[in-house]
Write a structure and sequence with these properties.
The protein has 189 residues and is of the alpha+beta class. Helix content is 41%, strand content 23%. It has a 5-stranded antiparallel sheet, with helices on both faces. Helix 3 packs antiparallel against helix 6 and helix 5 runs antiparallel to helix 6.
Length: 189
């Protein structure tokens, strides 16, 4: 894995600032806790208000935003708690062609990459019916991962959007990488 300096690390907020004003809807970078999730959703709602967005699409955007942010901060390992910079997440919502694209980034332990990559690849490889069935089975089994989640968040995002979950890991050092996930929401559904 290629390691990069924290100062050079891809910063979603910088990417957002470099986008045209027409494409960028919302950007946030900072710390998140349970209370902040609602604040971020309210900020995104204010920014989306001028858009002529179908109610069903707006619901998808908020559901995906909620799940994505919640996954980002809840699944950051406590080992990262000693480094304030590594507890920050980044979120960008932009217009891209016929889609709204949500990009969410956070730091992750390298030990967790294989499991997360396998989970996302499995989700991306499932057809709509398979994903729905897998979601129901996981929900009914109430299985929990070591971080306390059940893996339903990413499945729910894929189910709601009907799109692949695109992701990237950028090595920071021997222990940590920066995880970015890009999620598309079709403007017309």
């Amino acid at each position: 894995m290629l390691y990069i300096d924290l100062d050079i690390l891809i910063d979603l907020k910088k990417i957002a600032e470099s986008m045209s004003e027409q494409d960028l809807i919302f950007a946030y970078q900072g710390y998140v806790n349970d209370e902040m999730v609602n604040d971020i959703l309210q900020m995104a709602e204010i920014k989306l208000k001028p858009e002529s967005v179908k109610t069903s699409v707006k619901r998808k955007i908020f559901r995906v935003l909620f799940e994505g942010i919640q996954n980002s901060y809840k699944h950051q390992n406590n080992v990262l708690a000693n480094d304030a910079e590594m507890r920050k997440i980044s979120t960008v919502l932009a217009r891209k062609g016929g889609f709204y694209e949500l990009s969410i980034g956070n730091y992750i332990l390298n030990d967790d990459i294989i499991r997360l990559k396998k989970n996302i690849d499995q989700i991306n490889g499932q057809k709509k019916d398979e994903l729905r069935e897998n979601y129901r089975m996981t929900l009914n089994n109430n299985a929990r991962t070591k971080s306390g989640g059940s893996g339903l968040g990413l499945m729910d995002i894929a189910r709601k959007t009907g799109e692949r979950l695109n992701y990237n890991f950028s090595g920071v050092n021997a222990d940590v990488s920066y995880f970015t996930i890009n999620i598309k929401v079709n403007k017309n559904e």
